[in-house]
Amino acid sequence: MPSQAVSQPLCGLSLVLALDVSSSVDDEEFALQTRGLAAALRDPAVRNSIRAAGGIQATAFEWSGRRQQVDITPWSLLSFDTDIFAFADRIETHQRAYREFPTALGYALGYAATRLRDAPLDCVRSVIDVSGDGVNNEGFEPELAYRHFRFSDATVNGLVIQGADPDPVAYYRTEVIRGPGAFVMVASDFRDYEAAMKRKLLREINGAGLARAD
User: Fold this and answer.
1) Half-sphere exposure for 103 (CA within 13 Å, toward CB)
2) All residues at 6 or more sequence positions from 110 whose CB lies less than 8 Å from its CB, including other chains
3) How far is it, in rounded angstroms, from Cα 80 to Cα 97?
4) Is residue 173 scored above 60 in pLDDT?
């Protein structure tokens, strides 16, 4: 029988998308995340990049407290526009599961690592894309997640909504991002999330820095 590496569909990237639903994110701000991510995925430049990469596999989940991680989408192979639009639709229509929990970034990263471990395809690159508006305030820190979960083949990038105190941008840059070419993309507020996500996806999918980090 042919090996998976020979028989599986082409896949340039495994992408885990993690969306913040901690108590600092109200329902309007969460909707700006889901609508913004869906719109960024539907953007022609992003869809062209996905096709040029040979297709990607992607999954998304919401995160907040220690055990409040909820899958938004299963792993999905995005090779054609129909795949991308269906994936975006699932994200846009997702109803958040939690509202009142703190920010457990270490736990979110650990969950993202397990999602990568369970990915159905062996892709060229692996990226975890963490969105958030605050620093870790519950449970173990990201450093401990990196020590105890497997991240050896993954890059972790951040999309940070700035404005909170302590500064989440500085925290993501020093404590969260990890791996080859890791970067932080900054959104000035949740209304800037869609534009920042589009730049971030282009950079992650193309893998060549076509979008500039702030």
Assistant:
1) 20
2) 145, 148, 149
3) 30
4) yes
Mean pLDDT of 24-42: 97
In order of their start, the domains of the chain are 4-203 (3.40.50.410)
d(CA 152, CA 100): 33
Closest of 9, 8, 213, 18 to residue 114, by C-alpha:
18
Q: How far apart are CA 60 and CA 84, in angstroms?
A: 13
Q: Which residue has the tokens 């083949």?
A: 153
Q: Would you state the pLDDT for residue 152?
A: 84
Q: What is the pTM of this model?
A: 0.92
pLDDT for 2: 41
Strand 56-63 to 69-78 pairing: antiparallel
| Three-state secondary structure of 57-117 | EEEEEEECCCCCEEEEEEEEEECCHHHHHHHHHHHHCCCCCCCCCCCCHHHHHHHHHHHHH
In angstroms, the CA 162 to CA 129 distance is 16
pLDDT above 70 coverage of the chain, percent: 93
**In the prediction, which pLDDT does 4 show?**
47
Cβ contact 58:87 at 8 Å: yes
The yes-or-no verdict on residue 213 having pLDDT over 70 is no
Task: Specify the length of the chain in residues.
Answer: 214
